[in-house]
């Protein structure tokens, strides 16, 4: 093993301290310019997400099949029943049209009887399903 002379030792120590002093890897501040509409959209999304209650409500499935037929069924449904909300869910291999967000089973069954007059293969989805 080679022993360094004191002169080389001092030179290496001085060089290392100089290099370490000049390193500024994370000392800069970051300024983020963000569109104010972005924050508004986030707040709207948070409000919307808290208003969705999927596990505590009864829903009605009115269609299961191909994508285009599901879109047409949902469009027809929204035209006829403007006060009941609906959506399309993809569950391999079918698209399902799910409507309503009923808090009680009685309310759901009343709407189910009315919807069944127009749509043939409808059934009630229990909460948590």
Automatic annotation (TrEMBL):
Domain SPOR: from-to ranges: 52-129
The protein's GO terms of the molecular function aspect are: peptidoglycan binding
Give the signal sequence positions.
1-25
Protein name per its UniProtKB record: Sporulation related domain-containing protein
User: Could you tell me which Pfam families the record lists for this protein?
Assistant: SPOR
- Domain of life, per the record? Bacteria
Keyword annotations from UniProtKB, A to Z? Signal
């Amino acid at each position: 093993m080679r022993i360094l002379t004191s002169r080389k030792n001092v030179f290496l120590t001085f060089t290392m301290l100089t290099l370490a002093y000049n390193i500024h890897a994370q000392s800069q501040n970051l300024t983020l310019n963000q569109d104010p509409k972005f924050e508004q959209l986030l707040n709207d999304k948070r409000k919307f997400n808290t208003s969705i209650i999927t596990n505590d409500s009864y829903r009605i499935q009115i269609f299961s099949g191909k994508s285009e037929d599901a879109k047409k069924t949902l469009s027809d449904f929204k035209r006829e029943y403007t006060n009941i909300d609906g959506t399309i869910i993809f569950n391999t291999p079918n698209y399902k049209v799910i409507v309503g967000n009923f808090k009680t089973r009685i309310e759901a069954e009343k709407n189910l009887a009315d919807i069944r007059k127009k749509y043939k293969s409808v059934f009630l989805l229990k909460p948590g399903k």
